[in-house]
Structures are given as C-alpha cells and as structure tokens.
Amino acid sequence: MDRREFVRLSASAGAALSLPGLTGCDGSGASPRAPLPLDAISGRAVERWSGTLSGTVIRPGDDAYEASRRVWNGRIDVRPGMIVRCADVQDVQRCVDFVGSHDLILAVRGGGHSAAGHGTCEGGLVIDLSRMKGIAVDPESRVAYAQPGVRGLELDTATQGHGLSTVMPECPGVGVGGYTLGGGQGMLSPKHGLGCDNLLSAEVVLADGTLGVAGAEGDADLLWALRGGGGNFGIVTAFEYRVHEVGDVWGGDLVFDLAEAGDVLRAYRDFLEAAPRELMTSPRFLSTPDGVLFSVHVCWPEGESDAESVLDGLRALGAPAADTIGRTSYLRFQASAANPPAGLPVFGRAGFFPELQDAMIDALVERVSSAPLGAYVSLYHLHGAISEVSRNEAAFPLRDEGVDFFVSNSWQDPSREEAVLTWVSGLWEAVRGYTEGAYVNGLADEGAERVREAYGSQFERLSRLKSRYDPRNLFRSNQNIPPA
Three-class SS of residue 94? Predict the structure, then answer.
C-alpha cells in the first residue's frame, strides 16, 4: 500500500474537499490579532457549521464533556467552548476553515500528553484527533503509515507483527503526532535516529484549510519544519515512517544505592566517551515511599555476541544492588514501560547538558536526595544516529552529543503543590546554568524566550517558514514560533 492508497482509504479522500482560503493567509493581508472564544460568535452559525461534521461534537453540559475536556496533566483545568472528535480529514479541514474564518481560539489534541496543556484551550475549539487511528504497514518497502490518533505502542504492535519498527516513544500511551513533530527520542534513537528523522512524508491540513503534502516529492521545506518544529505549521493527518528490522533487545535496569549516585554518574560520564553507537542509556531517579531509587535504564538492540561486553561495562559503573537486564522482544520491552499516570497534576522542567560537569552532578545528587514523593529525574544520552543528521535535514536542534535532562513531580494531595513546585524549581535553578537549549517536547509553558532558546540556531528559519505557512499564527497553542 502506497501513501496515496493509505490516504484514500483512511482519510476518506480528504484532499478532494475544496475549501475557501482564509483572509490574509497568503501573507499579503490581515495582521495577526487575538483570537476569540467560541461564544463570541452567533450560536446559529456554530450550529450550521457543526451540522456539516461527521465526527462527534461535544459541548459544555453534554454527558461526555467533563471527561473529554481533561488532558493528561491534571494541573491543566480549562473549559473549551467545544470539542470536535474528528472522523476524517474533511472534519479537520472544516474545523480549521471555521476557526480561521471567525478568528477563534484553537487547540489541537492527539494523545493529549502535552505537559503544558497545549491539547486544550479556554473557551475555544479543540480539534480532537483521537478517533483517527488508521495504520498500514508495507514490509516490502519498509514503510508504515499512521494517522494522528495512533499511540506509540499501537504502531509498535502493528510494525512488530512484521519484525519491524520505527522509533516510537518509551511511554506506550503517548500519541505519535506531538511526539514526532517535536523530535521524538526513543530507545532506538542511537541506532535509528529520532522519530522525526524517520518521517518520510506527511499529509498536512494547512492554515488555509487546504491539504498539503510534505516530503521529498512534495514540499521539502514543510517536511524540514515538521521534523522538530512541533504543531506550528499545520495539522498532520497522516504520517509516513521509515521502519527498520527490529528483533530482540537487551533491556532493563541497573539499580544502584543512592549513596553511590555521584560516583556512578562520574563513571557513567567516562563510559559515554566510548559508548557503542547503538546503545541507549538513561540514568534515573524516582522518589518512592521507600526512598529515592537510582538506576540506569538500558536498551541494547544489537547482537548477542556483543551484549555481554557492553553490559559488563555498564555493570562496572558501581556495585549494582539489582540487575534486571535481560533479552526480550522489542515489543515486550516497549510495552513494559510505565505510562505516566493520567489526571494527576504534573510540574516539570527540561534542558540539555552538552557535558556532565562535576558541579552539576553534585548539585543534582544533593537535591535529589531530598526529593518529595513522586519526583522523577531522567537523563538520556543523545548520540549515535541522532548526531549524524545535519541541521539542514530537520528542524530538531539538538544534534551535538550530550544528555537530555528532565525533572518532574506529580502529586495527589493539593496541600503538597507548593512544596513540589518549590523543589522542582530549586533543582532546575541549580542545574540550569549547565544547560544549552532543551528538547521542546519536555518544555512546560515557560514563555517565548524559552522556546527561542530551545530551538537555538534553527529558530530564525522556522520563524520565516511560519510566515509562509501560517502568517496569522492560527496554530499557536503549542511551543509557539511566531511568524517572522
């Protein structure tokens, strides 16, 4: 099945729908202005338009509204004016056209895992893509197709049925859309690159309501922007991925005593200097009722003959109190990862360390030792195939070898919120000076300058392309890149 056939079957020929362009979206007219809530326009107009949709329309007061307005981060508590669960590409196009014609507040939701809550909005229209779950795998051409409602584990399950996989998220419930468009680091990234590096083409509903094709045979500039530029340039309704032969992996955790953490991280830093290209490692701290657990998470997707020497080098980082690394299928390894609990409030920060400096390690270990319950800190070694991709090939900016850092904390008792926010902020301030940029998918709602910092040298080109594809900044509920 080729791309055209996939789109014809799963998108109900959405490309054939002809919709009027939006005023000013050709870059020649209207200046951007603040969008409006849905209740600012005629109820009759809303009813006429919503009657043209094939999907489910959910309004305040409907039985499904309270559950439907919630997103993964329970700290986000807003009330959209309407949620549309799109059935097909035509629904997406009609929503975009209606929002643009009336200057409405818009949010786009795939998996709903945005830590910043970008999958919802106050008073506006939420385009919910969760029903669009088409998947097709072509094992001969090593290509897989997925619609934006697909979750990472769902695509892994389909591709692993053929002994194949692309690079999907470690957390099984994360949607493929936001994950891929923000970059997409996964356990296979050192060997096969980021999720966005494996994106071959995409069908995109643009800000004027038309359906475009990003790819080598379509719009190459748009594909470059989608490979890391987030949801700034349109709504992707079909992804075409390169897939690879993936069999068993050696995966699991080495658990060390917390008192060893500083020494282990220094030894880990030395180990990285000669780490095999294909190896993914991730030191982690998790605060549990029994104390802070310190481990190094491992995925080695190569041959059995090399596994023992590689793993022995990791085991030599210290004296592991537990060793759960074993051989397993890649699908089972992916499925065993814990999903972040949905509905709990979460607060986090993210950055990128070009190197693990002694002072940073000391600051990290000192503060983690007093972490409140539910705190989570992860470090991901970004190298190998990730660093072999030129910045001219994709918008994703973190191509130099280094370590991605993420800290978060969730809580159930509302009285703990202030203490949690204080601890996370304190840890972040202690290590922020050692960071350069950030993985955009790890950012919270931290403001325009933080987005610019995350994209670094890629930001200016992204901003110029934003002017071409979305000059009125219709797609702004994201880590936003404003038009130049």
Answer: helix
